[in-house]
């Protein structure tokens, strides 16, 4: 006959657990501060853990209106209102008596990583403004930080494999850790300003400098992860825009200029371009980032720094 994966004794032992867990939930709030937007997530899990790791479920999601937090560097006062809209909804979904015990974490990704490289003071001021905002909230604020590219890749890998059921198996109405580690899958995370690839390599000794170890549900995983900064979706759209604009510029008569861009500083070698004087008014009517991107599409992947003489 059919034999269930879970031992019968284990199934019997957990029959009454759902009632206990149902009335003793814990909550956590995570803000994913991406380059193009911020998303608020509410998670719930039973107080008891499975092999030292919580069995987590997402109970609420709210997209904060407006752009990513890095866009508020020159208008910090405008940060609070869009956050309020989501936080007020969050407060309604978590019992009031649990607010003070509900942890809040904010992790910022490539948008803030680029801002920190370009203007560290501005990046710190954005984070400080967020910290001040959450300290006035009823929750247990645990901090706002800019996570590294490898950390972002690892978190994406964990999320993908958790959703695909590679860490826990279903036993009746409950989830339990596998009796032995299950094969995992790789993850490719295409963000707004960066892309991450993460997987467990066949040879765990290769690329040790790019490998992070994480322990989940009683098992350790050595995950290779790499972040490609400036290779996100939004940057790809800008390159496409640049390629479309480039065909409008005349190749005749010479006009010399230089451009500057935080991403160009890492990836491009075409710091100087020449365009026709007949197109000068069109060219300088474009915003500086767009002018910089016209250089980016001719990328030769060498390491050169730039300075636009029109920018003091």
Structural notes for this entry:
The protein has 312 residues and is of the alpha+beta class. The chain folds into three domains: 8-147, ATPase, nucleotide binding domain (Nucleotidyltransferase, domain 5); 159-229, no CATH class; 238-296, no CATH class. Helices cover 32% and strands 25% of the residues. The chain has a five-stranded mixed sheet. The chain has a four-stranded antiparallel sheet with strand order 8-9-11-10. Strands 6-7 form a two-stranded antiparallel sheet. Strand 10 and strand 11 (219-229) form a beta hairpin. One of its GO terms (cellular component) is plasma membrane.
How many strands? 13
Secondary-structure element order, as H and E? Answer: HHEEEHEHHEHEEEEEEHEHEHH
Gross morphology: globular
CATH topology of the largest domain: Nucleotidyltransferase, domain 5
Q: Cα distance, first to last residue?
A: 79 Å
Report the CATH C-level class of the largest domain.
Alpha Beta
Arithmetic mean pLDDT: 76
In the residues, how many domains can be counted? 3
For the largest sheet, list the strands in their spatial order.
Answer: 3-2-1-4-5
What is the percent of helical residues?
A: 25-40%
Structural class: alpha+beta
Give the quaternary arrangement of the chains: single chain
Radius of gyration: 24 Å
> Could you state the CATH homologous superfamily of the largest domain?
ATPase, nucleotide binding domain
How is the biggest beta sheet arranged?
Answer: 5 strands, mixed
Assess the beta-strand content as a share of residues.
25-35%
Low-confidence stretches: 1-22, 252-260, 265-287, 291-312
- Number of helical runs? 10
Active site: 152 (proton acceptor)
Protein name: Ectonucleoside triphosphate diphosphohydrolase 3
GO molecular function, one term: ATP binding
InterPro entries: GDA1_CD39_NTPase
């Amino acid at each position: 006959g059919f034999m269930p994966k879970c031992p019968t004794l284990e199934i019997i032992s957990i029959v009454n657990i759902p009632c206990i867990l149902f009335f003793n939930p814990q909550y956590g709030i995570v803000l994913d501060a991406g380059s193009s937007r911020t998303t608020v997530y509410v998670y719930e899990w039973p107080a008891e853990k499975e092999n030292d790791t919580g069995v987590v479920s997402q109970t609420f999601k709210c997209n904060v209106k407006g752009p990513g937090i890095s866009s508020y560097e020159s208008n910090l006062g405008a940060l609070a209102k869009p956050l309020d809209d989501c936080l007020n909804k969050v407060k309604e979904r978590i019992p009031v008596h649990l607010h003070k015990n509900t942890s809040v974490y904010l992790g910022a990704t490539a948008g803030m990583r680029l801002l920190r490289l370009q203007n560290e003071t501005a990046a710190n001021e954005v984070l400080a403004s967020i910290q001040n905002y959450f300290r006035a909230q009823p929750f247990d604020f645990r901090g706002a930080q800019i996570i590294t590219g490898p950390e972002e890749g690892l978190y994406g890998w964990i999320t993908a494999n958790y959703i695909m059921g590679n860490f826990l198996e279903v036993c009746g109405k409950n989830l339990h850790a596998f009796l032995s580690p299950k094969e995992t899958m790789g993850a490719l995370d295409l963000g707004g300003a960066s892309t991450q690839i993460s997987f467990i390599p066949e040879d765990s000794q290769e690329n040790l400098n790019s490998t992070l170890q994480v322990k989940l549900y009683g098992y350790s995983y050595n995950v290779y992860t790499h972040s490609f900064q400036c290779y996100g979706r939004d940057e790809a759209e800008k390159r496409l825009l640049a390629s479309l604009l480039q065909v409008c510029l005349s190749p005749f008569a010479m006009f010399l200029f230089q451009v500057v861009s935080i991403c160009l500083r890492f990836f491009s070698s075409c710091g100087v371009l020449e365009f026709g004087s007949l197109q000068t008014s069109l060219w300088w009517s474009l915003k500086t980032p767009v002018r910089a991107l016209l250089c980016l599409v001719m990328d030769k992947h060498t390491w050169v720094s730039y300075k636009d003489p029109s920018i003091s």
